[in-house]
C-alpha cells in the first residue's frame, strides 16, 4: 500500500492490524526493499520511501505476478511523463504487478486522459478480453 502522507500510512497499518492482519510499515527505503525481498504479505509505505528504496537498490526487481500495489493519489505519482516517473520506476521493479490506483482529488481538464495516467492499450489486454476471462 503506497500513500503520500505519514498519517494515512499509519491509519492503513492500524486498520489492517485491527482486522487481525499482520502488516509491516516500512521505516526507510532500504527497509521497504528488505520487506519486499522477505516476501512480506502486507506492506505499507509512503511513496518517498519507495523512491529512496529504489535509489538504494536501483537494480532490484521482483518478477512475481502475485503482487498487488494499491497506490493512493495515483493521479500524481502514477502519471507516465518520462522513464524517470514514479510509475515507470515502479514498473521496472514490479513488471508483473497489478497496480490499483485511487484518488479523491478531481483531475484538471488537461489531465483527464486515463491513458496518460499509466494505461497503455497496446501493452495490456483490452476491456473485452478482461470481461470474457
Overview of the molecule:
- It is a single chain.
- The protein has 133 residues and is of the alpha/beta class.
- The chain has 6 helices and 5 strands, in the order E-H-E-H-E-H-E-H-H-E-H.
- The strands form 2 sheets. It has a 3-stranded parallel β-sheet with strand order 1-3-2, sandwiched between helices.
- Strand 2, helix 2 and strand 3 form a beta-alpha-beta unit.
- The protein starts with a strand and ends with a helix.
- The C terminus is likely disordered.
The number of helices is 6
| Secondary-structure class | alpha/beta
| Order of strands in the sheet with most strands | 1-3-2
Q: Distance between termini?
A: 26 Å
Mean of the pLDDT scores? 76
Low-confidence stretches: 113-127, 129-133
- The residue fraction in helices comes out at 25-40%
Radius of gyration: 15 Å
Order of helices and strands: EHEHEHEHHEH
Largest sheet: 3 strands, parallel
| Strand composition percent | 5-15%
The overall strand count is 5
Shape designation: globular
Summarize the structure in short:
The protein has helices at 6-18, 29-37, 47-56, 74-77, 86-93, 127-132, and strands at residues 2-3, 24-25, 43-46, 68-72, 98-102. The chain is an alpha/beta fold and 133 residues long.
Amino acid at each position: 500500500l503506497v500513500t503520500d502522507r505519514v498519517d494515512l500510512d499509519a491509519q492503513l497499518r492500524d486498520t489492517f492490524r485491527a482486522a487481525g492482519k499482520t502488516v509491516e510499515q516500512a521505516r526507510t527505503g532500504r527497509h521497504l526493499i528488505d520487506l519486499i525481498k522477505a516476501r512480506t504479505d502486507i506492506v505499507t509505505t509512503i511513496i518517498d520511501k519507495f523512491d529512496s528504496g529504489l535509489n538504494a537498490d536501483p537494480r532490484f526487481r521482483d518478477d512475481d505476478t502475485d503482487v498487488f500495489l494499491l497506490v493512493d493519489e495515483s493521479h500524481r505519482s502514477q502519471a507516465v511523463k518520462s522513464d524517470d516517473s514514479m510509475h515507470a520506476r515502479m514498473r521496472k521493479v514490479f513488471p508483473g504487478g497489478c497496480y490499483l490506483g485511487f484518488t479523491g482529488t478531481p483531475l484538471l481538464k488537461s489531465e483527464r486522459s486515463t491513458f496518460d495516467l499509466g494505461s497503455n492499450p497496446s501493452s495490456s489486454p483490452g476491456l473485452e478480453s478482461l470481461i470474457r476471462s
